[in-house]
Each structure stands twice: as C-alpha cells, then as structure tokens.
Amino acid sequence: MVVDLNNIKPSCWVGEVVFARGAFAKLGEMVKERKKAYSGPAVFFVDHFFASAGNKLDFSLENGDLCYFVDSSIEPRTEDIDGFTRKVRSSVSGPPSVIIGIGGGCAMDTAKAVSNMLTNDGLAEDYQGWDLVKNPGIFKIGVPTISGTGAEASRTCVMSNKKKGLKLGMNSKFTLFDRLILDPDLSKTVERNQYFYTGMDAYIHCIESLAGSYRNFFADTFSRMTVELCREVFLGSDMMSDENREKLMMASFLGGCAIANSYVGLIHPFSAGLSVVFDTHHCIGNCIAFNALEDFYPDQHREFQKMMQIQGVTLPAGICRNSGTEELRKLMNASLIHEVPLRNALGQDYRKSLPEEKVFSIFKRM
Ligand code: NAD
Ligand code: ZN
C-alpha cells in the first residue's frame, strides 16, 4: 500500500476507556473525583428515553449539578446546542468540572458540542467544519446506551443547520471524549428495529471504507474487525443477547476509530439526501439507502438482506415513491454535494457513474 507522506496526520483517540458489563456504576465515583480536583458542578446530557419513571438510570445529582434530557426524536441542530450552552452559562458561575453525555449519537454529540462551546466564543455554526475549535472543551465523559454510530470514539459531533442547509460536525481533536464508559448492559432496552438500524451504521461505515480507494492499513484493520463483529452479531440467532450487545458495543467503538481515519462511500451521501429532504434519521436513512444500492455493493447488500431476514427486521418502503422531478432533484443535489466520499467510492469521474436518471432511479427504489 503506497502512502502519501505529505497527507499523513496524527490520529487522535479518546483519552480513557472503561469497557465492562455494569461499568456504569463507576460513573458517580468518576464525577466525584473530577469535582474534588476542579471546582464547578457536573452537567449531564441524557437521552430522553431515560426521563420516564420506569427507565431512570442509577446516578444521582449533587448540589448544583445540572441534568438536561436530550430529545433524540430530532437530531441535534446548531440552535439546540446554542440553547443548551446558554442555559448552562446562565446556571453556573464558572466552568463546570465535567460534562457527561449518556445516550445515542444525539445525546453524546450534544454533550461534545456544548463542552466545546462553553470554552469557545460565538455560535455552534461558527465551528461546523474542520479544526475550527480553538480551545479545549470541558472534560467530557461519554456513555453510549445504543451501539453503532461510533460517535463515542469519533472527533466530530454532527449538527444540522437549516439556515445554511448544512449537516456538518465540529471536526476537531477537542471534540473527542476524555473518557468513555462502555457498558453493554445499557443497551438492553433499545427497541429491536432501532438496535438494528443504529448497529448497521458500524457495518456500513466499514464496508464503505473497505470498498473505497482512499485506503490505509491502519483504518482497514479496524474496519475488518468491525465488520467481523457485526457479522457475528447480525448473522447470529439473537442480535440482542448479552454476548452480542457486548460485541456490538465493541464494533461501534472500533468502527468509530476506523472511520476517523478513512472515508465513507455511496451510502452515506444518499442517506444525507433523505435526511436533508425528509429529515430521515441517520441510521435508518443509511439502511434505506443501502437497500437501494445493490448495484454498487452486491455482496455486502446480499449479506445485509440476510441479516435483516435472520433478525426479523423490516425497513420502511416507498419513501420516495411519490417524489416528483423537483423533489428528486433536491434529493440528488443534497447527495452529490458529498464529493469526497463519492470520489472515494467511484473515482474522480464519479458523476459519469451517477447520471441524473441513475440517481433518480436509485431514489425511486427507496
Ligand atoms: P439516537 O441518539 O438517534 O437515538 C435513537 C433512538 O434510540 C432514540 O429514540 C433514543 O431514545 C433511543 N435509545 C437510545 N438508547 C436507548 C436505550 N438504552 N434504551 C431504549 N432506547 C434508547 O441514536 P443513534 O442512532 O446512536 O445516533 C444517531 C445520531 O448520531 C444522529 O444525529 C447522527 O447524525 C449522529 N452520528 C454521529 C456520529 C459522530 O461521529 N459523532 C457518527 C454517526 C452518526
Ligand atoms: Zn454513519
């Protein structure tokens, strides 16, 4: 494999990782330790699923600590991040000692973004892009409760910005979590279809990366391990057994490490089109897009079908059935704007493989 030495950047990693069933019980102790060393309260961002009485997680707030529930029915928008940042600033006199994100990609990305915004001036949208964050954020602990996106391991936090028509993260080494608690027991309560859609994000990231042309042995190794673990989980009899939830949590983490050092391919751009036009959520959007991209990923598509069948998972059908030319064009533009992954998948002349009628027919199949 030939490497372009001018393009090598050091890779960054989350600070510390605890991986064990039941490890969530350690959170209280970690927060206390932080607060002993640094003044300021702890600020929790927790997925709204855990707000209701029957679903409460076992952690307690001390005097001055703040807890916000994140509504993951809407993926994070820049104005949500600015709103949370304002609320924290107005509730505490100095910087918090620690920020904790508990949930899926939405809650974890919110925690990462607010942590950065508390130590950097301006608005969240000012930092959508690469390496724009100037100061390290507040120390942050990530606790995924659903596995697949790799948000726990990545150096970005995805936010949509309707005003600018953008869905883009704060890509920065300061966005990485300082510590992770990976406790597979936390994903027990995830609804089966959602568990599958989010889990498939890890598989999709890595099959796209491995089928692309920008390759490096470092990311490939993580990708292969991720794909192998996903196969064990989704081709096994019960994807949600204790053992398989453990495997998928590891796959998600490794997939996040892989994708931080490589690129996705065709599926993510098509999914982004759905997200811009229909507000389709990331992971289900990926599955819908993947389902229509058989021509480009035939072997992987066959495996994906088998996984759905074994796990008894269904996908919504006909999402673009009634789309007219104008809507199809919007979908196409929102997808083809993602030049880097498309080039990774199809080469410099990617538009030749994706003429308008081809793109329309792919969307019509969704
Ligand atoms: P999510 O945060 O969208 O949550 C999905 C659903 O699962 C929600 O209904 C939530 O309430 C529920 N849920 C979560 N944990 C649960 C539990 N233990 N029990 C019951 N229900 C539970 O989940 P996601 O799919 O992990 O995240 C998608 C988000 O992640 C999108 O906003 C996407 O843009 C982002 N993302 C970020 C990165 C990154 O690197 N930062 C990468 C990919 C995707
Ligand atoms: Zn993804």
Can you walk me through this structure?
The chain has 366 residues and is of the alpha/beta class. 44% of the residues lie in helices and 11% in strands. The chain has helices at residues 27-37, 78-91, 105-117, 192-210, 217-234, 242-259, 267-278, 282-291, 298-311, 325-336, 339-346, 350-353, 356-364; strands spanning 16-19, 42-47, 66-70, 98-103, 129-130, 140-144, 158-161, 166-171, 179-182. The protein has a six-stranded parallel β-sheet with strand order 1-9-6-4-2-3, with helices on both faces. A three-stranded mixed β-sheet has the order 5-8-7. Helix 2 crosses helix 3 (105-117), helix 4 (192-210) runs parallel beside helix 6 (242-259) and helix 7 packs across helix 10 (325-336). It starts with 15 loop residues before the first strand and ends with a helix. The site of nicotinamide-adenine-dinucleotide (NAD) has 33 residues, from helix 3, helix 4 and helix 8.
